[in-house]
Structure formats: C-alpha cells, structure tokens
Amino acid sequence: FASYYGDHMVLQKKPSGAVVWGHGELGAMVTVTLSGASGLIIMEKTAQVKGPSGTWTTVLDPMDQGGPYALTAEQGLENVTLRDIYFGDVWLCSGQSNMAMTVLQVANASQELAAAARYPYVRIFAAAPARSHVELEDLEQIDLPWSIPTAAENLGHGNFTYFSAVCWLLGRSLYEALGSPIGLVEVAWGGTPIEAWSSRRVLQACGLPEDTGRHIWVDKGGREGPQISFQHGSCFNLKLALCFASSLNLALSSSTSPYQHLSGPQTPSVLWNAMIHPLLNMTLRGVAWYQGEPPFLSPRVQQPPLSHQALTSPSFWGTGEANAFLNTDQYNCTFPALIADWRRAFHTGSAGQTEPLLPFGFVQLSTYRRRSADDSFPRLRWHQTADLGVVPNARMPSTFMAVAMDLGDEQSPYGSIHPRDKQNVAHRLLLGARAVAYGDKDLVFQGPYPTRAILEVTRGLLNITYSQELICRQRDAQAFEVRSGISSPKRCEREGNTDGGFSPPQVCCSSQASPCQWLPAPVVAVGSRTVTLALSGCRMLVLGLRYAWAEWPCEYQACSLYNPQGLPAPPFL
Fold first, then answer.
1. Cys-Cys crosslink for 269: which of 124, 192, 241, 251, Cβ 3.0 to 4.6 Å?
2. Which BP terms from GO are recorded (predicted)?
3. How many Å from the N-terminal Cα to the C-terminal Cα in the chain?
C-alpha cells in the first residue's frame, strides 16, 4: 500500500468510492479484498501494476459508514493486511503554523487532551514537513501514521508538530454533529506562503513574476543540490514552477533580493510537490485551510531588517504565517486559483470520486499588533474572500470562512500571531462545513453583512442595512470609516479604553481641496438590521466605506457587530 494507508485509517464513505493504491512488481496483478469483522469477504477488486513507477490503483465500491474492516492487498504469495478500518468522512487540514499548533498549545489544553478518549472514531494522520523541486508520487515521510487519538502520544505530541488543534477540534465537532467516523489528515508547515502550496498552474494563472536571485533545493537525504542561477528572467535546468519567486516586502538592509538567500519551504511549489501532490489519489470530503500571516512576525526571530542567519533559520519559517507581506495584493488571485486547482487535481487523481466542487473552508486572518497602522492584515482578509467580503461567492463557490479577527491573544506564549482560542475557530468552521459541505440550509454560518447603504446628505448620516439581525457589543467610534470624523455615541460604548488602536467603520470622502482620506464615521444608532453613521466631516461625495479595517480591530470577542448566534460581522471595504 502507499504510505498513507494503514491500520486505524478512515476511508471515504458513500456516495463516493475510496481510492486505494500501492506499489508492486511491474505487470503483476494485485487482488484487493475488503473483509468484515467476521472475516467474510465483502468486496474484491483486481488491479495491474503499471509503469513507469510500478503502481496499482483501484476504486472500492461506495460503502456505508462504519466498521471495523480489514483491507488486504495480495500479489502472488505476498500479502499485506490493514486492520481496524472505518468508512466515514475524510478531511484534509493544511496551511501554516496556526494550523500546525497542537492541542497541547490551545486554551484549556488539559481538558481538551483529557477528552480525547471519548472520540475513538475520529482518526488522525499527519504528514511530515517535506519539500521537493519535482512532483512526488508518494509521501517521503510521515510524522503520525493513522492513529486512534490519545492525549500524550499524538494530540499533544509537542509544539507545532502534531496533532493540529484546529483540525482535531473541527473533526471532533463533525463527529458529534454527524455521528459518522471522521478521518483527519494534517499537512501543514509554519511560515510558508501560499505560493509554496501552489502548483505551477496556479503561479502561471496569476502571472507571478520570476525572480532574479539564486535558489537552493534539498534532496530526499537533506543534501543541498546545485545552486541555480536566474538571469534576466530566464531559467536554466529548472522547471518553471521553481523559477518563480517574487520579492518579499522586507526592509532588508542589503539591496540584494531576499530570495537570493532563502531556500526551503517558502520556495514556490515545493510543498505542493512534496505534500499535496502525493495525496491526490485520496478521496476527500472537504478541506480546512489556515494560512496567510507573515513569517517574520514571530517572537522567536528578530524584526526586519533580518540577517541572513535569521532568514534561513528553521524558526523563521516554522512559527509564523506568510502572505500578509508577501504578494499580499495577489492573494485575491492565488487563493481562489489554489482552491480551483486543488479541486481539479483531487477530482482527477481520485478517478472522479472526490467531488469537483470539493468543500473548502478557511480561517480569515486573526490579529498581531494592537496599534499597528499597517493595513496588510485587513487587505489580506479582504483578498481571502476574492475582494467580495463573504463566501461562498461567484469566484469562490462551495467555500466557507471562519472570521477570527475578534480572537486576538496578546498574552499567547507563542506570540500574538498564534492566538490560543482555537475552539471558536473550529466552531465557526463547523457551522460553515455543516451548511456548505453537508447542506444544512437552515443553519446560520456567517456573520451579518451589509446589503445596501443610503446617504442622507442634509442630515450628514449614512444608513447601512445588514443581511441579519444585529447585536452591538461595542459602540466603537473608529470601527467604520468614510474619510470623515465623528463624535462618540452614548450607548454601547467601550468602557475604559479611548486609544486609537481599534478600527470602526470608515468612509472615503472627496473634495477638490484635498485628496480622499479615510476618517472615522461613528455609529449613532443601531437598529435590528441597520446601523446609522454620522458623517459630520464628510458631506460632499462619499466614495467608500469600510469596517474593521485594522490589524487588531477589537478586543477579544468584542468587535462592534455580531448576529444573535455570536458570529462577528466580517470586515468589508
């Protein structure tokens, strides 16, 4: 069998058929049998080992949820049997360090670990971090083979190792909601940009430029390969996917491109090649993704300008996230393109068993610095929705999003870039999964979003209508912006905090005398589905409105607007 099949695994249940594959002697016939607990053969399939790599593949008939089963592959006198196999739903969890944070690291970790024994039918698997300059057929290494969850041995193995807290909490909640066995596959590496998880097709589709630095690749044994030079945009002895590398927006003291020094997991396509491509034959039910923050916003490495040692250290790429300052404004292309590309690849690789619109959930960026004036975080949050604010949408069908900008954790021992409240993240993902992946049409899984805005010019007011009932948790004079200024409201005010570190709605005003500038538009009234903003400094042409447009827009679970289900209104522009 291929590397990611083993005892205790979960295979995808009906209506899809689970793909099973492995290695054998070229030309030989392999017989695959599925047996019940009594040893009765339920299903038998045959497949021929084909070249050039000597692999066989078969698709099992769709199976109802349940188990345990045994799966045997037999070639001549040789056979291998995998036991304690269940059929259920298989979810892939990928991304960076916030996905790699283990159950050991989250809030209430001891209680979460102690509860592991109650979920023997949520099975877990973790691929080892790996990179390759070519697409691999199978995983090179596994951190955690298919396992029944246990507190110390696997769920709480260590920091940023296995098992992913977001993935586990989502899977556990899916099991509670559905009653079906759940298989969870963790494929994550901290501090890696989306380009590293993208195939060559994605990079080309988004027109990402080639770099003019030099790259180092590492082979299976960890040995550095030849240094490849790039001259005038041309590429020699290297596939196009590795030719690409755009410049990091780092304040480097040197004038040379940072990619002249960087190698490893940030290189475009290397994680797609080594960690995603090998899994394409797997039949999946859904994907959960948590990626995007900048890698150098880690407490373990110095802030820019960064030394060559810091840029190439494992901690640099192992603890943060990556796209808030790398190709930020290309994320509205790269992210939808990655989703579409993964869907096509998994559908094709599984012989059509993984559905073409594979449900894809993701976590919108949380927070990092409380009073930062940098707008890279809100821009990336916006780009995560393909600049449409909510999902699913026309550019991102069959997707769902967990808003996390209100879950900031300044006291996290792993740095504020790694908030410990992964329970709320998983709960918000669960709601989206139930609605989008499982068709629960009556379930509210999104926060309120504006549907229209009416300007009352004579009164200097802007009335915004929302899609849902509103709950105002904080009347923040800075949450909305219109490039205008306003006085503080009297009710629903934040107590004891008047600093400018939060971002209310803002409006963009324009006059011939001055260029457009964003200014606060204080909330003066909140109705059941309406918000009224004062535009005292902006009564001419209003060009734009934005909400929660800040790196750290609010205190913990205290942004301005929520719905009655406790879901925050997402940022918008």
1. 241
2. carbohydrate metabolic process
3. 50
In the block, tokens 């299903």 appear at 43
Residue with tokens 């204080």: 522
Task: Give the amino acid at 81.
Answer: T
Is 74 inside any structural domain?
no
One domain for residues 267 and 379: yes
- Using alpha carbons, list the distances in angstroms from residue 490 to 182, 479, 528, 559: 49, 15, 18, 17
Handedness of CA 478, 483, 488, 489 (dihedral sign): negative
List the domain range (segments joined by +) for residue 480. 450-489+512-562
Q: Find, among 336, 334, 335, 356, the residue nearest to 345 by Cα.
A: 356
Q: Is the dihedral of CA 497, 502, 504, 510 positive or negative?
A: positive
What does the alpha-carbon distance between residue 261 and residue 215 come to, in Å, rounded to a whole number? Answer: 7
Q: How far apart are CA 535 and CA 518, in angstroms?
A: 12
Confidence (pLDDT) at 208: 81
CA distance 571 to 551: 11
pLDDT at 433 (0 to 100): 98
Structure tokens at 107: 């809030």
How many structural domains compose the chain? 2
Q: Which residue ranges in the chain fall short of pLDDT 50?
A: 210-262, 296-321, 484-504, 511-513
Per cent of the chain over pLDDT 90 is 65
Q: Which of 393, 403, 397 lies closest to 445, judged by CA?
A: 403
CA gap 293, 311 in Å, rounded: 16
- Structural tokens at position 260: 């002249």
d(CA 293, CA 192): 9
In this structure, what CATH number is given to the domain that contains residue 366? 3.40.50.1110
pTM of the model: 0.84
Question: Where does a domain end: 393, 427, 446?
Answer: 446
pLDDT per residue as tens digits for the range 243-255: 222 222 222 222 2
> Among 446, 479, 498, where does a domain finish?
446
Least Cα distance to 191 among 307, 322, 306, 301 occurs for 322
**Three-class secondary structure of residue 236 per DSSP:** coil
d(CA 539, CA 551): 28
Nearest to 21 by CA among 48, 51, 46, 56: 56
- Among 2, 17, 18, which residue's Cα sits nearest to residue 53? 2
**Contact in structure between 100 and 164 (CB atoms under 8 Å):** yes
**396 and 410 in a common domain:** yes
* Residue whose token pair is 């949380």: 366
Closest to 335 (Cα-Cα) out of 202, 243, 244: 202
Q: Please tell me whether residues 110 and 198 are part of one structural domain.
A: yes
Does residue 166 fall inside a structural domain? yes
Task: Flag whether 192 is in a domain.
Answer: yes
What contacts 513, CB < 8 A, 6 or more positions away? none
Same domain (yes/no): 480, 349: no
Are both 329 and 274 inside the same structural domain?
yes
Do 462 and 383 fall within a single domain?
no
Residue 550 within any structural domain of the chain: yes
| CB neighbours of residue 255 within 10 Å | 5
| pLDDT tens, position by position, 110-129 | 999 999 999 999 999 999 99
User: Looking at the structure, do residues 437 and 454 belong to the same domain, yes or no?
Assistant: no
